[in-house]
């Protein structure tokens, strides 16, 4: 699974609890996109979560 290159956000694990309180495994996936960004050496493709992309922590190429 991909991880954000800026904030290291990735999947989280926990339990899905039903109405009868039975538990099963659950996975929450972060909203991660592959984006072409500007770097010192030119443009580069990296994995970025959408919250970092919206906040302007990187500049798109």
Automatic annotation (TrEMBL):
Q: Does the keyword Ion transport apply?
A: no
**Keywords on record:** Ribonucleoprotein, Ribosomal protein
Signal peptide span = none
Q: Which Pfam families match?
A: Ribosomal_L28
> Would you name any one GO CC term?
ribonucleoprotein complex
Entry keyword annotation includes Translocase: no
UniProt-listed NCBIfam families = L28
Family to which the UniProt record says this protein belongs: Belongs to the bacterial ribosomal protein bL28 family.
Question: Which protein, by its recorded name, is this?
Answer: Large ribosomal subunit protein bL28
Organism per entry: Johnsonella ignava ATCC 51276
Gene it is expressed from = rpmB
């Amino acid at each position: 699974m991909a991880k954000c290159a800026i904030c290291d956000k990735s999947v989280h694990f926990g339990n899905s609890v039903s109405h009868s309180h039975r538990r099963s495994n659950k996975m929450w996936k972060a909203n991660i996109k592959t984006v072409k960004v500007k770097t010192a050496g030119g443009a580069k493709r990296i994995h970025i979560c959408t919250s970092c992309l919206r906040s302007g922590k990187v500049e798109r190429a």
